[in-house]
Amino acid sequence: MARVPYREADVDLMARMMRAEAEGEGVQGMLYVGNVIVNRAVADCIDFKDVRTIEDVIFQVQGGNYSFEAVQKGNVFYQRARDTERRLARRNLESWREHPAKYALWYFNPYGPCPPTWYDQPFTGQFKNHCFYEPLPGTCDSVYMG
Length: 146
Description:
Elements: H1 8-22, H2 26-42, H3 54-58, E1 61-62, E2 65-66, H4 69-73, H5 83-94, E3 106-108, E4 117-118, E5 121-127, E6 130-133, H6 141-145
Antiparallel strand pairs: 1-2, 3-6, 4-5, 5-6
Helix pairs in contact: 1-2, 1-5, 2-5
GO molecular function: hydrolase activity
Organism: Oceanobacillus chungangensis
Protein name: Cell wall hydrolase
């Protein structure tokens, strides 16, 4: 059973985002970004109480900006999804989760070392240029279940 309900349009959308955000970090990096996308759809807490679909997650606006920079700045995001990334997106949607993004709800690419927290959320690890952060214990149990 899938971690979150999805349509083929969601697979394409997620594949485009994974590529736009992490193509330079290879398959593993794109899978980690996919983890965060699915985790946000599953999480019923913090900044993600009103997002339930992949489309909701991708186009979520916080603080007047899209949550994912690639939506407003990324010409790669607006290219057609490729079969390679579609396969990766399906893996994430169905079951794939792995540390450091296994329970992560946030990631970013800093100009220096990964800080120990990101908006008060603990650092879980780094893969190439991306730092991953999961919610504080007891603040988002749904991300650990879904």
